[in-house]
Every structure is written in structure tokens, then in C-alpha cells.
Amino acid sequence: MKLGIIGGGSIANWHLDAYKGNPRLENVLLADPAPKPHTIEKLKAAFPATKIVPDYRDLLGEVDAVDICLPHDMHAETAIEAMKAGRDVITEKPISNTSRDGLAMIEASKKLGKKLLVVMNHAYTPQFLKAREIVKSGGLGRVFMELIHVSGNEFATMNIRDHWKGDKVRAGGGVLVDTGYHAMYLTLDLFGMPKSVTAVTRRILVEPENKGDDNCAVTLEFPGGAIATLSLSYTIFHEPWTERRYVYGTDGSIAMSDDPAAPFALYRNHKVVETMEWKYDNHPQGVGMTTCLNLYLDCLAGKAQPMLPPEHSLNVLKTIEACYKASETGRRIDL
User: Fold this and answer.
1) What pLDDT is attached to residue 299?
2) Residue 283: which pLDDT band, with cuts at 50, 70 and 90?
């Protein structure tokens, strides 16, 4: 299989790490008018016969599928053009910067008979896969609450007026639609679609007015009575990037973290009854990326199905858009 990566920025490096050594890949090509030097170095080391072109359209005749690593507002046009050229598509999250364009991508995939796979790598980390198995098998009893908190720092990039990250139009919003997208697809996988949302999304420290939220807190209410709260910040200056997730049920609770020293704990009756030993050299999200993208190559080869289909990614974006509306209007929004 020949794969074309479209976009040579920082996220492409994560993808190259995941693809390295996969026996399904004969070659990986890159389209970017000005790829990062580190990306070029990594690409040539993993795939010596690679080719780099400035325009992705020049790749479409030479590859079997494309992997889109572009800003959010470029996903839909690029993906649909690639599918019209007969290529299957992997795309970074979110599916697009608007649910309207995300739906157009899914409709094009069905009409043209081409695969569309949206990267949701946090769902493939070992700790979440373990938690998912426990929750979906009823191991926590009735699950009634989830809490996710992300402390991160993207202040410098968001504070660049012309950079796409955090741009309300190009990115579709700030921290909620960016890193919050990960938190949201994990939540909807465990709980299903919420019936309503309330939210506060604010640009507190980032200065350019075209940028979206740098801090947010949202609450989701689900048909069965469960609730989930997601809080995320891109302005935590004095701590390392940290992501913590907690799921509570009547028969136990689960704590997850991106810290390899304590990635997973299952609690019952005030005691830790199960933990996870981290046996990987890579960061948890890198392990998730490798698992996700290698599964997607199996999907492209017709040997597997994605755990989360593109419709799931679209529902995530619809929920996030409802959160932004809730914050703007100061009202609970029903879905």
C-alpha cells in the first residue's frame, strides 16, 4: 500500500512514528509546500524511497490512500477531492471545523464507496481500552458520572493572530474543539449522545479577538440520568501537560491518567483492586496513535473495522457546537 500524508507539520511526526515498520506500507509520500525539517528527516529515515511534493493533488495519482494532517478547515475539501480521485481517506481530528462539512465528508464517502477514517487516538490508549471493556461489560454497575480535566499550555500559538490554532473560523473554536475533542469522543463512546449540554467557554488570557476559548467547562446530561463534566485549559503555565479522567459507577470507579507511572486504577470498596503496569517506551498518546493508525491500515486493507466510525466523530462535533451555543446564549441546549 502506498500512502500520501498531506501536511508536514507537528502532527505528521506522530503519524510517521506510528507507520514506521508497518508491513502493509510499501511507501509513504508527503505533500506540503514547506514541511518541517524534522518531518522530512523522519520521513526519509522511515521510507527512503519517499517523495515530497508541494501540492497534494500531485500525490493522488501515486497513492492508494491519503492521511490528512492539515488545519481543521482544510479537511473537508481535501478529503472529498481525494475520494473523488478514488482514494480512501484517513484524517486527523476533528472531522472538520463544522458539522455541515463533516456531514458532507461522510456523504461523499458513502456515495463514492471510499473509506473515511477519523483519527481518535486517545480511544486506543491501553488505559482507555481497559476502562471501556470494564464499563461496557457492566463491571462498574450503573455508571452515573464522568469527570475529565486537561491542564495544557497552547498560549503562545493561540496568541499568534494569523495562526489557525484556536481561530474561531478556521479551527471551529479553541481548546474545546481541539484537545476537548479527545475528551468528548471518549465520553460519547462510554455514555452515548447527551440529551442536553450547558457550557462556559471563554477567551480569558489569549489576546487576538479572532481566537476562541482558551479555557472551558462543560456539563453533559444523558438520557439515563448520568452526567459528565469536562474542564480544559490552554493557559496552565506552571505545570506539565496533564490529562486525568474519572468514571464512577455503583459497583466501582476508574481513574485514568496520561502519566505512565499511574495510567489506570480500578477502585472497589475504597481499595485499588486493579492497576496497569506501563510496559511501553512511548507516551500514552503515542501508543494510542500507533494502535489507532495501524488498525486503520488494516481497515483500508479490508481486514478490520474501526472501533469508532466517522459518524461518531460527527456526533462529537455536533455536541461541541451545541456547547458553544450554550455558552453564547447562557442557556441549556437540547440535542
Assistant:
1) 98
2) confident
Domain boundaries 122-282+291-297+308-334, corresponding CATH code: 3.30.360.10
This prediction has a pTM of: 0.97
Grid cell listed for 303: 481486514
Can you give the pLDDT at residue 282? Answer: 82
Residue showing cell 481486514 = 303
Rg over CA atoms, the chain: 20
The CATH 3.30.360.10 portion of the chain extends over 122-282+291-297+308-334
Per CATH, is 2-119 categorized as 3.40.50.720? yes
